[in-house]
Specification:
By secondary structure, the chain is of the alpha+beta class. The protein has helices spanning about 5-15, 65-80, 85-95, 120-140; strands spanning about 30-35, 40-50, 55-60. The protein has 4 helices and 3 strands. Helix 1 (about 5-15) packs across helix 2 (about 65-80) and helix 3 (about 85-95) packs antiparallel against helix 4 (about 120-140).
């Protein structure tokens, strides 16, 4: 394992063990559940959106370090970003997991690029992002 891989692994484990934005929002604009039926990972995502900007992000869930660490890293990355910017980030994350070079906009999410080598874990890493996309799909025009 390279030094960079070890640093990334440490970051993922840190977010898994001490997730950021874990919990619920008092008055979310939208709440969406996500499930990976192949392994049982679960994510419940709460978004606060005002004027097309993600003003609040929180999640609850259970599962492996990859799914929960990804949810935490995603929540940090989404807060304060436009909904469209969040969707663009979701696309960049998915492309990275499919083998493309990471987009610099991903920031700490690049820590998950090694998941691409672990085919079974790709679904775990994509679960929070798929849940985000589904939540955004439920937003009315006034919030996008």
């Amino acid at each position: 394992m390279t030094k960079a891989d070890e640093l990334y692994r440490t970051l993922i484990l840190d977010h898994s063990r001490r997730p950021r934005h874990h919990g619920t929002l008092a008055a979310p604009t939208v709440t969406r559940q996500g499930l990976n039926p192949s392994c049982g990972d679960r994510v419940c995502l709460h978004l606060g959106v005002e004027g097309g900007v993600i003003t609040g992000v929180a999640f609850t869930g259970s599962g492996c370090a990859v799914s929960q660490g990804t949810a935490s890293l995603m929540a940090v990355a989404l807060r304060g970003r436009s909904v469209e910017g969040g969707l663009a980030l979701a696309g960049a994350f998915e492309r990275m997991l499919r083998g493309e070079a990471p987009d610099p906009a991903l920031g700490d999410l690049v820590a998950l690029r090694g998941v691409a080598r672990l085919h079974a874990r790709t679904r775990c890493a994509l679960l929070p992002w798929e849940t985000f996309r589904a939540a955004v799909g439920e937003l009315g025009d006034g919030h996008r």
